[in-house]
UniProtKB/TrEMBL annotation:
It comes from Nocardia rhizosphaerihabitans. This is DUF3558 domain-containing protein. Pfam families: DUF3558. InterPro entries: DUF3558 (IPR024520).
Length: 328
């Protein structure tokens, strides 16, 4: 009986081991392969754009026809570039020129202007600014916007917008590199982060998600493609630290992974929504300095959720901050 018991133990132990010749269990698929070919294709498109410096599509000579810019670089979302003149210039009191990626022009949008076979679609915003849109590729358009200074008299800025857009046409076939760019705040740690990488963690238990969008420096996704309440929008920004300081009623200050953050929960019919900002390179300042001192431009992660409240936004922010730190 003792011998039989020993043999049974050996036999059971053998059931839990794998012989050297047996097939090995398949490794779990990693991001983005587990998302399926359609989403992988959309994310690959974003990957191909993330290395681009949008400032490289603004022709310096065309800008100089207005005035020599005081600065050219990131200002706002990272899919844009701003050439700022520092002060209003010329009789039209022009303040800045912006280049924005990620547009989709609706049929019939703007006034078409033909330039040697290329269509520029022009739209005047009441004299405050004028935008000139160009098709970038088969998925998106880009916009060049010329702005007057705040409180300046309204004027026709479309000739300048069309002139700069015309100079951008031959540049759209190039890929100006974000890495090593000399433009301000373009080649940064945050600009290299793939925001959709959070789906490696967040997608668990959600086999029917959708993701993509047109912003390589952010991510749009729904954990359930048919449920708008599972939608989230991530964007990276270069903006003032007032976005993470105490502001309007309802703002809540917190920390995410050691970085200062602020969230604003939705109210009423939007009570399930939330906007959360994280300042990933924010300088530490005392409360008094935050109130009395000048704003500081910093890098920010912005997360907007349509459902699940700020708990969902915080979970996404926590994972994004973890991924951000891995790049450092």
């Amino acid at each position: 009986m003792a011998t039989m018991a020993i043999l049974m133990v050996i036999g059971l132990a053998g059931c839990g081991t794998q012989a050297p010749g047996d097939p090995q269990p398949a490794a779990a698929p990693q991001y983005p392969d587990f998302l399926g070919p359609k989403i992988v294709s959309k994310l690959a498109y974003l990957d191909s754009l993330r290395t681009i410096d949008p400032c490289g599509y603004l022709d310096p000579a065309a800008l100089d026809r207005i005035a020599r810019p005081a600065s050219i670089g990131a200002d706002g979302e990272y899919n844009s570039c701003t050439a700022a003149f520092g002060t209003e210039v010329g009789p039209k009191r022009i303040a800045k020129v912006e280049f924005d990626m990620g547009m989709i022009n609706q049929p019939g949008f703007g006034t078409p202007v033909d330039v040697n076979g290329t269509t520029i679609r022009v739209a005047d915003a009441g004299g405050e600014f004028c935008s000139a849109h160009l098709q970038f590729d088969d998925q998106q358009a880009v916009a060049i916007r010329v702005f007057t200074a705040p409180l300046a008299p309204r004027t026709d800025l479309c000739p300048e917008a069309v002139d700069i857009a015309t100079a951008s046409i031959p540049l759209l076939g190039t890929r100006p590199s974000r890495a090593g760019s000399t433009h301000a705040h373009i080649d940064t740690q945050l600009s290299r982060l793939d925001a959709c990488d959070v789906l490696q963690t967040l997608s668990q238990g959600h086999p029917d998600l959708d993701a993509g969008g047109l912003n390589p420096w952010g991510c749009w996704f729904r954990l359930d493609r048919f449920d708008e309440s599972t939608q989230q929008q991530i964007a990276f920004l270069r903006a003032t630290d007032s976005h993470i300081g105490k502001g309007m009623s309802g703002d809540e200050l917190t920390e995410i992974g050691g970085f200062p953050a602020k969230y604003l929960a939705g109210t009423g019919r939007y009570s399930a929504s939330c906007e959360l900002m994280v300042g990933v390179d924010a300088q530490r300042r005392t409360k008094r300095e935050q109130i009395t001192g000048p704003d500081i431009d910093i890098e920010l992660i912005r997360i907007n959720t349509t459902g699940g409240g700020c708990d969902n936004a915080e979970a996404t922010a926590t994972e994004l901050v973890r991924l951000y730190k891995l790049l450092g």
